[in-house]
Amino acid sequence: MVKRAATSEPESSHRQIKKVSRTHARNIINTQDDYKHLYLSVQPLDIFTWGSGPMCELGLGPLAKNKEVKRPRLNPFLPMDSVKIISFAVGGMHTIALDEESNVWSWGCNDVGALGRDTSGAKEQLKDMADAGSDSDDDDDGDLNELESTPTKIDRSMFPPLAEGHKIVQLGATDNLSCALFSNGEVYAWGTFRCNEGILGFYQDKIKIQRTPWRVPSFSKFNIVQMAPGKDHVLFLDEAGVVFAWGNGQQHQLGRKVMERFRLNTLDPRPFGLKHIKYIASGENHCFAVKKKDDSVVSWGLNQFGQCGISEQVEDGSLVTVPLAVQLPEGGKIKNISAGEHHSLVLLEDGTLYTFGRLDMFEVGIGKDHLPRYTYKDVHGKARSVPLPTKLTGVPAFKNIAAGSHHSLAIATNGIVYSWGFGETYAVGLGPAGEDVETPTRIKNTATQDHNIILVGCGGQFSVSGGVPLSETAAEKRADEMDDD
């Protein structure tokens, strides 16, 4: 498993995003005729973050008070009129962002080099324990690492293609790695992959942890045109429609069986037989691909809660070892797929949203009174998952989606964000209650109420959004609508 001078009306939000066609990725042509999946905002975005950030995830600076933010808050280090962020990618505990000049900014946890820059010289000021009091929580005992908690540019010299006039067209982030795709098809990456036993490594048996951007050796004779990061793996799609996979494959995320004794030698992007694909997506440990021929979707990987959406059968520890058909209704054109640890979201071009997977923390956003007949129940009769794609009803049409480990966000066509799922870490952005949210619920707060939100991203326990300020007229109209609710 990705923005003040200009204003925008919510109803024209489709013009806010440059959609880069896969078939024209070499020239970065903005076309409405071909399949589209790469999102770069045409206008600079205000960036908002919220949730729990004890590992500097929120990027709001080093003060201890910034470790927990219960509603979306404007990031003061990324002003729209000067930094001009147009895209971002959210990992498990870090975020990377892209500005108009193809500079990459990063913040969050840097334990294994995911930020692509040195943060070892930061000052950390611990609270005096005598002043902290016996009731102080361990997470509140001092300020954050100033270099990790503050959004900072990665040195441009780390990306030679920029000097040649090429631009970054997509960013990606896993739990422990970051990557950037350039308009010439080159991929740069940094960080590492983890597995069940700890750190797996970065590239074959040659690099264990890569702390600065590194050009991934060419692995296809065609240009790479899309990336899809998961928890500890990354999928790649080339312009011929072939899918490649790199990273940890213990849950068959790589689409192939990796022998234990060879897993370091094969730690590089490799094909696994999936061809004629036009779009790819990853959850934490499961994956999706859309076929060119008929827009049908296949999935593979971990499926113990039915997050692959292939059948009504649910089995603990279940793995889908080869790509199988996702049971979606025929005729719907896929716009976007996003997935978390045990749940998945599929957004159609008409704004319809299908969800499937785990129910325990309301990940799928379906109310208890509206569960379908195929809902899986455990031996005690408790509903645990919805294993087939199920249409959300009673919600607005959506234009973009994002899934975190156990929560989700969806942007309505009017630019308002809805959230649902696990609430204890405040990643749903709905305030101090910290309760799980059963169905999609509108985020209402002063920071974002006058913005047309364009992009959203979800981490393990935090969220990020980017939006453009509404015109005065549009802001007044929205305020009237909120008063009527």
UniProtKB/TrEMBL annotation:
Q: Where is the composition biased (Acidic residues)?
A: 134-146
Q: InterPro entries recorded for this chain?
A: Ran_GTPase-activating (IPR051553), RCC1-like_dom (IPR058923), RCC1/BLIP-II (IPR009091), Reg_chr_condens (IPR000408)
The residues covered by the RCC1-like domain are 47-464
Q: Which regions are annotated as RCC repeats?
A: 45-101, 185-240, 241-293, 295-350, 351-414, 415-469
Highest taxon in the source lineage: Eukaryota
A GO term for molecular function: guanyl-nucleotide exchange factor activity
- Return the Gene3D superfamilies for the record: Regulator of chromosome condensation 1/beta-lactamase-inhibitor protein II
Tell me which UniProt keywords the record has, alphabetically: Guanine-nucleotide releasing factor, Repeat
Q: Gene Ontology terms, cellular component aspect? A: chromatin; cytoplasm; nucleus
Q: Where are the transmembrane segments?
A: none
Q: Where is this region: Disordered?
A: 1-21, 125-156
Q: Which Pfam families match?
A: WD40_RLD (PF25390)
Q: Name one GO biological process term.
A: protein import into nucleus
This chain belongs to the protein called: RCC1-like domain-containing protein
Species whose genome carries this gene: Naumovozyma castellii
